[in-house]
Amino acid sequence: MLRNVLDVCVTRDIKLIYLSGWEVYSGYRSNYLSADESLPLLPKGPYAETKYLTEMLIEHCRRTQGLRCTMLRSSPVYGIGSDKPKFIYNFIDKIKRSQRIVTHRYNNGVPALDLLYIDDLVSAVTKAVGSDFEGNLNIGTGVTTSTQRIAEILQEMLGAQSKIESTLIDSDTAGIAMDASRARKTLDWRPTISI
């Protein structure tokens, strides 16, 4: 299906706005990594590899067929009307039921995410549509928040207390913060809603 979309964009000279994600960097096993667009892609897992392969196909069409495209690599998105990232809504459910919350610890630290509110992503897409910019842009807040801290924030917001525990996962985690300085310069975009 993507190949068909790319063919139509090239044939009709339509600029493609493609939403990719932070997962293309997920193979980096660092407790904290600020990812700008110059960081080589290193996906880990089937979903990340699919995003990577999609980006490679788009890049191939840029080089060989003159595809015009703005690629937006978003950090994890949350907000009203969605149940993603799933752990947030699991935490809310457990707090409402006064059940214990179990977070993870990995060999290289606790997981932390650069969470982007949906309205800020919509703003970035809108600015990309109205811009002449073509290329890749990372979209995120640049700030990571641990899952432990998110559980604590949710408890404060809901006015309830659940026991927060952690369990060790014998693996490493990737703490990726999306460096959106290029999006600030080229689109005059910045996130407005913090976690």
Overview of this protein structure:
Helices cover 37% and strands 22% of the residues. With 195 residues, the chain is α/β, with parallel strands linked by helices. Helix 1 runs parallel beside helix 2 and helix 3 (86-96) packs across helix 5. The protein starts with a helix and ends in an 8-residue tail after the last helix.
Question: Main traits of this protein?
Answer:
195 residues; alpha/beta; 3-stranded parallel beta sheet; two-stranded parallel sheet; 6 helices; 11 strands
Short characterization:
With 195 residues, this protein is an alpha/beta fold.
Query: Could you tell me the mean pLDDT?
Result: 93
Fraction in helix: 25-40%
Strand order of the largest sheet: 1-3-8
The outline comes out as elongated
Set down the secondary structure blueprint:
Elements: H1 2-12, E1 16-21, E2 33-35, H2 46-65, E3 69-74, E4 77-78, H3 86-96, E5 101-106, E6 112-113, E7 116-117, H4 118-129, E8 135-139, E9 145-146, H5 147-158, E10 164-169, E11 176-178, H6 181-187
Parallel strand pairs: 1-3, 2-11, 3-8, 4-7, 5-10
Antiparallel strand pairs: 6-9
Helix pairs in contact: 1-2, 3-5
